[in-house]
Amino acid sequence: MRAFAPSQARAALGAKSPGKEVVVEGVRLTYDDEGRGDPLVCLHAIAHGAGDFEHLRARLRGRQRVMALDWPGHGNSGGDTEPPTAGRYATLLAGFLDAVGVERAVLLGNSIGGAAALRFAAQHPDRVRSLVLVDPGGLDPMDAISRFAIGLMVRLFDAGARGARWYPAAFAAYYRLVLPRPAASEQRRRIVACAREMAPLLAAAWRGFARPESDLRELAESIRCPVLFAWAKSDRTLQLARCRAVIERFPNARLEVFPGGHAPFLECPERFLPKLEEFLAAPPASGARG
Asked: HSE-up of 270 (CA within 13 Å, CB side)?
């Protein structure tokens, strides 16, 4: 992977807590850490950043310790020699939790962050109190539909990495589908401002989605902790209809559907946050599907 010095635009997407950084497997990771109580660790999507969770931290910090890290090459975090995959991110997450002294946490992950949280929970079940999986990757079938979509996205981001003049406009149009609701407009603007800078990471991530190890469906029955699935109704990348059968295989899960395209905590926080608070407050057994 190429290493990039963080631009102001990229830094604006990331963690804001000064001096909060650790080094894990040679990678410098920046993070936010606010509040007291049981830790909730938030894991963002590719080309996003810890800034995705600003409203969530503000809402919960009075009664919950909320942490959000920037993946390598995001925010002010350093670059990585490994490609961005759920497996790599799960490894970095383990090192991050060790470095900050968190033995057990609730994990909230969006997209590839959700896939990383799921992979981590399968590898380290004793370290996960519960999971909040927001439009997570890895649960849709790897069929002709998926392969076609992945191929299209790889070509788009490869063009951006090569400097295609039309790419910024195409990326902006794409993100109007990913985050269509007005509540997410400011974060969408920040993401679009990084379109060309993040293109190589996006291309690498989407290539990884086609690899067999990105298919996490076989993990469903092994996840015994409570799981809240939060899904955006209009997600065109990770369609709920294609993932619902796998969701139903999780033994202790519930599903909430929200308006939006990919990130309900950004797009409709007024609906998402009460459901999150309800889930966090529930005793372990009540996280199960009724």
From this structure: 4
